[in-house]
Amino acid sequence: MASASERDTFSISGPIHLMPVNWNCQHHRRSVAASLVQGVYVLECERQQNHQGSEVLAPPWWEFFHFELIRKLVDDADSSFFGAIYEFKPPASNQDSNAPKFVIAFRGTITKKESLTRDLTLDLHIIQNCLHRSSRFEIAMQAVRNVVSAAGSSNIWLAGHSLGSAMATLAGKNMAKMGILLETFLFNPPFFSAPIERIKYKNVKQGIRIASSLITAGLSVALTAHHGKPVSEDSFALLSSWIPNLFVNPGDHICSEYIGYFEHRRNMEEIGAGYIERLATQNSIGDLFLTAFGKESEPLHLLPSANLTVNLSPSPDFRNAHGLHQWWKPDQHLQSKQYIYR
């Protein structure tokens, strides 16, 4: 996944609020989560550049919001910092039960030589639906389990950008299957498929999506007859109560397909084809073929429910559309919808 820009990485002016954080305000909650992810980007960039003393710029990204960095998550393959665990330590006068106790944040790809090879390898794992088998994810998952075990599941957040949002998605899914629902913030989460959302003609897009749903549902029915139960139905139903917060930009081809993914489900319900879409939305064609050959696979991007926020503000280029900085800026044109799988 594309990295944060250099401007994003070393500016400390972006996320700062002039007023105290209102933990009931969705803009504030989103901005804080994005800022804590940005803190991980800065930590890794400064590690690579060996910043010391007054050169260090990372701490303001969490200290301004009264968080303390309690652990850096280190990749065992390249020793890079890919995540961080923050603990909320507010002054006594600023206690708020709606604030998170802990936030576990994951960065995306950084295009610097010391981490680029490892990050790109993991990006490829996302496309191949095997990120869950990587040692980086195993380290991340164990960190999440440890925090939940020590502090309970109440008021623990997961957050990530791009590759990092894929890590947070997998961790959130795994915890949801155990009945533990963690509030999750996914910034520009990857959704790899044909770029249908970039087609300008609405009727063409809708026709392609309907045809795809019919094919996927048909394959699912065929495999059900062979295996004796619907593919992925059990795990999909377990996830339906987990409602992650997704933040996507139509100009970002890495994540923009989530817009059509959820909207198409609603459209199919409205035309009376909800049953077909419920079968299709649990599977992807590629992974159904893998299942047919005995290779079980659960696509990362298939989510039953979500709070989907789309940034409708114009983006001059892909770098801005995929950038993390847009999610703490106060002047964005955001549109939010909730999709619940039933």
UniProtKB/TrEMBL annotation:
Highest taxon above the source species: Eukaryota
Gene Ontology biological process terms, A to Z: lipid metabolic process
InterPro entries: AB_hydrolase_fold, Fungal_lipase-type
Pfam families, per database record: Lipase_3 (PF01764)
Domain Fungal lipase-type: from-to ranges: 140-179
Protein name, as recorded: GDSL esterase/lipase At4g10955 isoform X2
Organism expressing this protein natively: Elaeis guineensis var. tenera
Lineage of producing organism: Eukaryota, Viridiplantae, Streptophyta, Embryophyta, Tracheophyta
